[in-house]
Automatic annotation (TrEMBL):
Gene: mutM
Sample GO molecular function, one term: 8-oxo-7,8-dihydroguanine DNA N-glycosylase activity
Organism: Leminorella richardii
Biological process, per Gene Ontology: base-excision repair
Record note on cofactor: Binds 1 zinc ion per subunit.
PROSITE patterns assigned to the protein according to its UniProt record, in alphabetical order: FPG_CAT (PS51068), ZF_FPG_1 (PS01242), ZF_FPG_2 (PS51066)
Residue span(s) of domain Formamidopyrimidine-DNA glycosylase catalytic: 2-112
Entry EC number(s): 3.2.2.23, 4.2.99.18
Protein name: Formamidopyrimidine-DNA glycosylase
DNA sequence: ATTAGACCCTGCCAGC
DNA sequence: TGCTGGCAGGGTCTAA
């Protein structure tokens, strides 16, 4: 469900309901997630929420004593609800707020996590992450230099968080289509011009999806329960066997690095 | 050091 | 109708 635009959409959705209020207490119904829910989170009592941030696909909830680092995995979501709504089967964690609402984390596959850190710069999950895709550090020049000598196929290479964060399976296929680059090419075969174009398209596609409230494929909903609308704009993702919107050639699919990859053989070279 | 693969977990859908 | 296999938006770990 969640790629970077979905996380950013969630961040924006929950922010006004949380900043300036307190986390009164935390209810953990299922601690067995990717990693066990951190003890410090379990123990929170009446902690003021200072800010809601994001790094890569991690939500950062700043309290006066440290940060909650949340990840939604493959199937997770967070919603702000009135406290009295009964939790469902996969509603694993509730952050009960001082305003009568609750930040409720739902995650059928339980690949998500809720970790704690006193020091963001020293947090294990954040320490080795590459630049943000929408920041200035992620440039054509940066991508071109990193690609020199790389034999890995471009698409799985783009999804490596040490290179750049936040380019997940949907947006990797989409941005390569927009750049007219075949996902199977070795990363080292990128020209400088292609690297410039690819970076520009990654930024454009991600920004556009954030504007649209993310991509709703199955069940992604914004924090207020509305779907995202970017799915309507997908060019290749999930469209195997359907005609390319540009040239009409049938979209193909291939597994690269265990992940389905979609492309148009005629448009992409 | 780089790269490919298995794995964590549940739900859903197509095909038999 | 009911079963089975394959697949799913992510990330980490191991082993070649």
């Amino acid at each position: 469900m969640p790629e970077l635009p979905e996380i950013e959409t969630s961040r924006r959705g929950i922010e006004p309901h949380m900043v300036g209020y307190q986390i009164a207490r935390v209810i953990v119904r299922q601690p067995k997630l990717r990693w066990p829910v951190s003890e410090q989170i379990n123990a929170l009592k009446n902690s003021p929420v200072l800010s809601i941030g994001r790094r890569a696909k991690y939500l950062l909830i700043e309290l006066d004593s440290g940060w909650i680092i949340g990840h939604l995995g493959m199937s997770g979501s967070v919603r702000v609800l009135p406290e009295f709504i009964e939790p469902g089967k996969h509603d694993h964690v509730d952050f009960v707020l001082s305003n009568g609402k609750v930040l409720r984390y739902t995650d059928p596959r339980r690949f998500g996590s809720w970790l704690w850190t006193d020091d963001l710069a020293d947090s294990g999950v954040l320490m080795h992450l590459g630049p943000e895709p929408l920041g200035d550090e992620f440039s054509g020049e940066y991508l071109f230099k990193k690609s020199r000598g790389k034999k890995t196929k471009i698409k799985p290479w783009l999804m490596d968080n040490r290179l750049v964060v936040g380019v997940g399976n949907i947006y990797a296929s989409e941005s390569l289509f927009e750049s007219r680059i075949l996902p199977t090419r070795p990363a080292g075969s990128l020209t400088k011009r292609e690297a410039d174009l690819l970076v520009a398209e990654i930024k454009r596609v991600l920004a556009r999806s954030i504007e649209q409230g993310g991509t709703t494929l199955k069940d992604f909903l914004q924090a207020d329960g509305k779907p995202g609308y970017f799915a309507q704009e997908l060019q290749v993702y999930g469209r195997v066997g359907e005609p390319c919107r540009v040239c009409g050639t049938l979209i193909e699919s291939e597994k690269l690095g265990q992940r389905s990859t979609f492309f148009c053989r005629r448009c992409q070279k």
